[in-house]
Specification:
Elements (H helix, E strand, L loop, with lengths): L1 E13 L3 H12 L4 E2 L6 E3 L8 E7 L4 E8 L2 H10 L3 E6 L2 E5 L5 E6 L4 H7 L1 E3 L1
Parallel strand pairs: 1-4, 5-8
Antiparallel strand pairs: 1-5, 1-9, 2-3, 3-4, 6-7, 7-8
Length: 126
Amino acid sequence: MHRSRVYAVLIDTPEADAARATAFWSAALGVASRSNSSEPQFIELPEGIPGVVTAIQAVNDSPRFHLDIETDDVEAETARLLALGATQEAQWQECRVLRVPGGHLICVLPVESDPDLFEAQANTWP
């Protein structure tokens, strides 16, 4: 048995457009942006979408949106999603990058949120 929940919505943006995209989404959502010096490719938009982390991610790829799913068992959650029809595209650190039916990307990663929040909001899977 393991648990998981949607942790973040990422707005993947080509690196060259990240500053303009950040200004746009910050103004559009009515929130300030916040950079993280340890992970400069991510620019958070705190409370951009209440209940989940919202961030711009500078990528060397096409613009898109993707979800991060946090879990207390990355292997089990990845296996569950693969059984539902996803395919694994890559692995980055502990994160598994999956392509789901319809072509969208999701990332499966270890729990990042406050443990009490995760406990209150996560789904339990057999």
